[in-house]
Amino acid sequence: MPSLNERHAELLRNGPAGQGPIRARDAAQRLGTTEAALVAAGATGTATALRPDWGALFAALPRLGRIMALTRNENAVHERHGAFQDVTSGPGHILVLGPDIDLRLFPGRWAHGYALGGERPSLQIFDRDGTAVHKVFATADTDRAEWDRVVAEFATPLAALPPMAPPEPVAKPAETPVDTAALRGEWQALRDTHDFITLLRRHKASRRQAFLNAGEDLALKLPAAAGIATLQRAAEAEVPIMVFVGNRSAIQIHTGPVTRLRATPGWFNVLDPTFNLHLREAGVAEAWRVVKPTEDGDVTSIELMDADGEVIAMLFGARKPGKPELPEWRELVASVAASPWPAERAA
Question: Are residues 336 and 218 in the same domain?
């Protein structure tokens, strides 16, 4: 039977013409394996296993200078250029709060890390299912000598092999009835957007379930295309925004303008010099305009979900704690919500 490397090489040779290179994530799905297994086998390039001292590894990354950080889920890819700064870690989390690279990392499920060589070196982190959760790529501005030193410091010959087979799908737990009045009352009493997750847990409600029950003043369902419309209007009006993309183990945030927008077959893209976003249009099943009260006034977002109710991306107006929401952002979201969408695009 051909090895995984041989099967991967054959897949690359016989891939559809004109569709660009097959990414490791997609190749793993086609081969019935995990991306981590492909990487560990050397199918995507020479790979050095890293010891899973995640807090220390990320604390070392500011030494690299400018890099590109990438976090993705099935339907969105978030790429941000810059330098790691202000890295801290504690029980169950790693925070990166620099002006360029802004991350909320939750390494409890992380299990495998690799440094890949070649023309575009990278550090790649995978969870225990073999799914990529965060990657760091060297750029022309990266200190390559320091990169090599970091890899040497964290290299290990004792790393466990990642799983070859992807995990079996897990059915989502059935939703239970919620006390709509209590949910709405506690939502209206929020003082910080970060308390919203606690509210959902307290009511044992999914995000979509809360949106459906809160009332349209707090959560208004929009056509799935509202996310793209929001990006387009933010670019046209030069309104700086925040773009959140995450998965179970990492959330990456861009704060600033979006300017260069481009649609390609199946994807809508932001292609700015320091920020790229790739949004799989078919994966966006729902969009919601969401209002959360805070001590600084209401905070408004456009939140995109897939067919299972999982968050794909969230868009906010650029803001800092202690500062009210930009009125230009609030007006922009109101204009998107009031748009006369064609009937075939309506949710």
Answer: yes
